[in-house]
Amino acid sequence: MIERQPSENRAVKQIYTADDVHAAITNGKLVNYYQSRVDTATGHVIGVETLVC
Description:
It is a single chain. The protein has one domain (7-52). A hairpin with a 6-residue loop joins strand 1 and strand 2 (45-52). It has a two-stranded antiparallel sheet with strand order 1-2. The chain is 38% helix and 28% strand. The chain is elongated. The chain is built from one helix and two strands; from the N terminus they run αββ. It is of the alpha+beta class and 53 residues long.
């Protein structure tokens, strides 16, 4: 038998997660690490990726 979490609990969890992210942004606790995306055929930068920690 598979138990499913009620949708209300998922919504509450999402709200807590959103609040946690907002607090981290507000408190300067998130750091961005940028990496260029390069076309190997031309060597041109075609975009950028970011890792948020």
